[in-house]
């Protein structure tokens, strides 16, 4: 089942896009008022897919084709719409009510996706902990639509970060079986702050993609004490941790390598922070959410 999850997760934004275009292009010519409603609904679907879809599982650059294709579809449907007025002309009240409810839901989803960039209170400012390349936020932001799995696990302000290749994918394919096919696997992890090593774990094996280790949720990890905050860096490569408990570290120090240990489907860096046991928002300069890019 876990092997099927990544392909399904990868293609769901494309599926949403197909639904939007089918809604626009599959309908018969309609009065302008009905055409306008279909355009708004499909536009909301495309917007949500653009904002919240995990595009790096196929190609990050695909998302920029959406606005262009949407405009082409809108021009086409407007050109063939009839000049009648009145939404109730050919739609039943039930269908109209369903479409209006769908529109309200879609508007709210888009609001949540945009609001994900807004942090709940002053964030903990950290240095970005990876070295060189184009990095992508696979999960992140203060919203369940941009950070679903963390929100369900109770750490809704954490980030999952991967690295992109030249075609905008985080790996050589949608769901490769080799860890080495993932761009971030083995990347150097740098300390995001100056502090001390509060705790660490380095005895978990790196699991194959799609086979999470539920017995060790964080896998190999390091917890740094930076001022009054505790910063967790998780899913590290087995045997790569270079520091010891109690050791003082400076920002930018090489701590370990990114791996695939613990409860994870594929290699990535998980980073989160707490202050006094309460989750703390993070910032690496500009606010980040899903689909955000950091270039080093």
From TrEMBL:
Record flagged with keyword Translocase: no
Entry's transmembrane regions: 6-25, 37-55, 61-78, 98-117
Heme in keyword set: no
Matches recorded under SUPFAM superfamilies: Duplicated hybrid motif
Sequence ranges assigned to domain M23ase beta-sheet core in this UniProt record: 217-276
Keywords: Membrane, Transmembrane, Transmembrane helix
InterPro entries per record: Dup_hybrid_motif, M23ase_b-sheet_dom
Record's protein name: M23 family metallopeptidase
Source species of the chain: Geomonas paludis
């Amino acid at each position: 089942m876990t092997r099927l999850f990544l392909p399904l997760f990868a293609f769901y934004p494309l599926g949403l896009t197909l639904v939007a275009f089918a809604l626009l292009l599959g309908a018969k010519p309609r009065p302008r008022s009905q055409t306008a409603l279909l355009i708004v609904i499909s536009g909301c679907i495309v917007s949500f897919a653009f904002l919240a879809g995990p595009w790096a599982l196929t190609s990050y650059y695909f998302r920029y084709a959406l606005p262009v294709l949407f405009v082409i579809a809108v021009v086409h449907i407007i050109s063939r719409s009839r000049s009648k007025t009145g939404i109730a002309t050919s739609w039943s009240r039930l269908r109209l009510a369903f479409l209006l409810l769908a529109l309200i839901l879609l508007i709210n989803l888009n609001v949540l996706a945009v609001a994900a960039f807004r942090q709940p209170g002053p964030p903990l400012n950290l240095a970005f902990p990876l070295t060189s390349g184009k990095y992508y936020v696979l999960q992140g932001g203060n919203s369940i639509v941009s950070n679903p799995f963390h929100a369900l696990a109770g750490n809704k302000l954490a980030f999952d970060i991967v690295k992109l290749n030249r075609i905008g994918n985080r790996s050589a394919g949608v769901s490769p079986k080799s860890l080495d096919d993932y761009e971030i696997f083995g990347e150097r992890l740098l300390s995001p702050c100056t502090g001390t090593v509060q705790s660490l774990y380095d005895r978990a094996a790196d699991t194959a993609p799609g086979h999470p280790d539920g017995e060790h949720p964080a896998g190999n990890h390091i917890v740094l004490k930076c001022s009054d905050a505790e910063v967790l860096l998780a899913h590290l490569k087995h045997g790569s941790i270079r520091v010891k408990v109690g050791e003082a570290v400076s920002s930018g120090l090489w701590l370990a390598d990114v791996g695939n240990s613990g409860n994870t489907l594929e290699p990535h860096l998980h980073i989160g922070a707490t202050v006094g046991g309460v989750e703390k928002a993070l910032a690496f300069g500009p606010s980040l959410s899903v689909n955000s890019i950091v270039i080093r």
